[in-house]
Amino acid sequence: MSMNINWYPGHMKKTRESIEKNLSMVDLVLELIDARIPYSSQNPVIDSIVKNKPRIIILNKSDLADEMANRMWQAYFRSKGLDSILLDALSGKGIKELLHASERATEDIRKSYEKRGVINRPIRAMILGIPNVGKSTLINTLAGRKSAKTGNKPGVTKSNQWIKTQGRLQLLDTPGILWPKFEEERVGLNLAFTGAIKDEILDIETLALKFIEFMKKSYPELLEKRYKIVVEGSPLETMEAIGRKRGCIIRGGEIDYTKVSNLILDEFRKGVLGRISLELPEE
Ligand SMILES: Nc1nc2c(ncn2[C@@H]2O[C@H](COP(=O)(O)OP(=O)(O)OP(=O)(O)O)[C@@H](O)[C@H]2O)c(=O)[nH]1
Ligand SMILES: [Mg+2]
């Protein structure tokens, strides 16, 4: 499968170098991943970039993900010795847990400062994550306002600005944009389903059919409930049933495949179909 993504080795190297430079200024890394696709949305070389910095895995958009899967992923990361929290960066649900986790993760640093008589030193953190995972949203939610200069392009060096938040956390205003992994077909599909990659990796109809195929296997009841259909037959038949229910019809009574495909993917991305996780640990 071909993927039109703007990452090439030179670009990755530059991004990595810029992130490494920023890392030297922080105590803590907040690694944002998409709770619906924790595997696909984790950067493949994050370990080698972050090395020994304290790090918290934030399962963002957890409001859109399956609650049982959320718990499984949290347990999975904890079993790997990584603290992880569930977040909805839009509403702020989970921010308190994030602040607590930040205190926990940097306790040694705080103690060593206190030994030297420095008290109430802020915890300096930076946010890392692939495009569209919610980095700017989290910065704005933590700052309690729309902070300037988020949504930077990768590889751009900027003067350092620290954003104060509630509590002791201070954020570097440059979010580190990581490249997603896109070698595996399933990963590319998951990134496309969730809207993490803009460029179409497949045409929208094929993408929607792949999505229906997944839904038939994992959440048929959500399709039945939302579209008042009986899920049977092929993904194409299911797509046609949804198209008829939703009036995605062109002249002559034919199904408007583009329209129904966009509708289904859009409803998934907005969470209207229900809470859906595309990946479970160690699948
Ligand atoms: N439902 C839900 N939507 C979220 C959450 N966090 C972010 N979003 C939405 O996801 C989209 C992307 O969020 P951004 O904060 O712009 O993502 P980003 O990581 O800064 O993206 P880039 O700057 O392109 O790398 C926006 O439409 C947000 O409203 C969340 O926790 N839940
Ligand atoms: Mg952004």
CATH architecture of the largest domain: 3-Layer(aba) Sandwich
Small-molecule binders? guanosine-5'-triphosphate, magnesium ion
Strand content: 5-15%
Which CATH C-level class of the largest domain is it?
Answer: Alpha Beta
Q: Would you tell me which CATH topology of the largest domain applies?
A: Rossmann fold
Rg over CA atoms, rounded to whole Å, is: 21 Å
Tell me about the largest β-sheet: 7 strands, mixed
Number of strands: 9
Given the helix and strand composition, which structural class is it?
Answer: alpha/beta
Please provide a brief summary of the model.
The protein is α/β, with parallel strands linked by helices. 42% of the residues lie in helices and 13% in strands.
How would you describe the overall organization of this protein?
This protein is α/β, with parallel strands linked by helices and 283 residues long. The protein folds into 2 domains: 169 residues, 3-Layer(aba) Sandwich (Rossmann fold), CATH 3.40.50; 69 residues, Conserved Hypothetical Protein Ylqf, Chain: A, domain 2 (Orthogonal Bundle). Helix content is 42%, strand content 13%. The strands form 2 sheets. Strands 1, 2, 3, 4, 5, 6 and 7 form a 7-stranded mixed beta sheet that branches. Strand 5 and strand 6 form a beta hairpin. Helix 10 packs across helix 11. It is elongated, with a radius of gyration of 21 Å. It binds guanosine-5'-triphosphate and magnesium ion (MG).
List the topology elements.
Layout: H1 9-23, E1 28-34, H2 46-50, E2 55-60, H3 67-79, E3 83-86, H4 95-105, H5 107-115, E4 123-129, H6 135-143, E5 162-164, E6 169-172, E7 176-177, H7 185-193, H8 204-218, H9 220-227, H10 235-245, E8 249-250, E9 254-255, H11 257-270
Parallel strand pairs: 1-2, 1-4, 2-3, 4-6, 4-7
Antiparallel strand pairs: 5-6, 8-9
The chain binds guanosine-5'-triphosphate and magnesium ion.
